[in-house]
Write the structure tokens for this entry.
Amino acid sequence: MTKVNGFSRFVLATMLLSSVLAFAQFGQPGKSIGKISIQGELIVMELDEGALGHANLFDLAGRTLRFTPGPAGYKVENLALVWDAEFGPEVKDSEVKLNKLSFPFSGKSWDAFTLADTGVISFGPGGRAQGADPRGQSPRSSAGLPLERFSQLGEAAHDIINTVPAICVFLKPRMSGAHYVKELPDRVVITWDVTEPYGNIQDFTWVKTTNRFQAVLYKDGSIDMSYQQLAAKDAIIGLYPTVNPAAERVLATVKHTPKPEVAPQGIRNVKVSVLDNMLLKVTLEAGSPVASPVEAGAPGAYRITIRKPDGCCKVDWSVLRFGPRRGRQAGRPPRYMAFGTGVLPAVEASGNVLSVQGTLPAELKDAAKLDIQVEVPTPDSPSEVVDQVLVRGVKLAGIRSPEVDLSSLNPKAGTFPIVYESFHYLALPNPRDLACTVIKSLGDKFDFLAYYSDFRIDNQEAGTPSTGPLGGNVTGIGATQRGLESYCSAGRFQWSFVQPVYAQSAQMQEYPPADAPMGNTHDITFYQRQLGERTLDGKMNPYNYAVSQIAHELGHRWSAFVSAKVNGETIQLGPTHWARGLHAPVAFPYQRPIEASLMGGSYWQDNFDGTFTQLDDDYYVPATGWSYLELYLMGLISAAEVPDFFMLKNLTPAGRDANGHPIFKADRTKITIQDVIAAEGPRTPDVRHSQRDFNTGIVVIVEKGKQPSAELLERAEGIRRAWIHYWDTTTGHRSTMTATPNPASSAVGK
């Protein structure tokens, strides 16, 4: 994958997704969301009805959508397919200049626009589509829209509003391929012929897929979107002109006097309004400046609850302050971001005033009135509040949601200033809910939990981030135990997947299929022959992708949070993944003589001339083992057993060796384990008292009323066995891993 400042794009995606999950679940402890049973050594979770919402898959293949502009917006028709088979020339550049016409959109006439392989057209200076490699492994800028390959399409559709004027023909991150443009005097025809990403550990397919769709922009402002052949079933489709900020209509205002003891953190008034008859806006005036440098005791969050007066339905919008508060950036104004169903992430903050806006959630679309409550949660206990204001009976006359069912629209449905539909899979679960569902039923006897399913989740990547409370009271590793009760654990549970991995994804298959093309050095297909040479049957270890994923994610229980203190300077070795320049050789290799840690870092050869050869890189395909540093952090070797290592900075390419390994010039800093201990303190419990026996729950998840498929059970069992073998091998048999619902002992550290 493409690297940014020593991190893979996947790292950044994982970090952001984990942060979003944490923010979205602000103040929500885990709860049970299904029923648990046992099949052999596997745990089966049957979800409650609607636990992950409902999927809405693409249903417009073989159809054309026609958008006709009018004074108040667009009328929409669903027609039989209209397709121009003459595509015109392929356009390599993302910037398209029109020579024969101008196209009216979002209150302006345009003679240029930006195209992205991800199926979007944008206007103005807001964004420039980034290039991609032909395998689609690089993230896409989506022509300036706030959407990346890891976005949840069910939530992201409203995030696009008021960012960049855009036409989403089939907006799906990570797509790659060709696009064509044909300009005529009265129209311009844009055609995409693209594929979903394939062959990588994060992909759903081993081979290219066909996705062919087309947009026609007419001189009079009309737009046709046509869908000839689509393998993909999830995307955002619609029109996103910018909303007129002057069209704000106030619905209700409430003045409030907070108690004197909470006045600086309290709320003085709340205003509810609507923008362009489409966006609900909530503005609050705080008792102290919200856009000033953070002061001690200042509120870090606000919660807006929107509900029907009868209490039957509600939606929470959370507004959180974040940003650096120490060091060189101390004293800078805080930044805010909003999370919740329908809310736009951007938050306006000026002086004492803060405002958020969003579309009316589906649960509340039919309401004539709403109650809106604004709260300031207590920083240390989000379920308690410092101050709150209730705005009762807000009348909703004239508010209309831009999210529609495009397949059912006709001109009689009226006009829409903005109109879109999000096609998506089931929503991401709350990882606390998944853990609590298992632990409440089977007991607190799992160190780790890994989830697999027969259904897809609304994530553009087939893999999963990880999270957890870091149970077991381990210190000296740069991270500490937190929030055990939120995961329903009394002390044992440590780490887990965030979401289930889909049974049909590439990483859940035992081997690549025979017709899978050879990929690059980050695809397992590249290594088939090399890894097969070490086995009697000529095959690599089974479930290589899956083992790499489970080991990498559960490895975050210990890695990579530590720093080192060298000659008074603190050197960060991560964070989250080891830095590319860290020399991180594996102590007990899994399948190759020379391996770098699957948590990052590289295997560097010092050439003793100021250059260094990278013998194994910082990517986790094929599966590799643990570095000496990690085995120490895991409590499996003593500090004395960790050989000295080093960090390379200022890496500059300097060619390749005879075997094709990259060579770099760099500055070398020697690091010892004592330098790590100087920064973090000693690892406790130490190697003589640390936990050596671990248990992973392998959980297969099905929807309500369904049984796990034979494929899901077979593949989950294969991964379970491969995981145990991997652990025994890569820990040098200094630790054991079981993967069973019924371990011999459930005591921590036994």
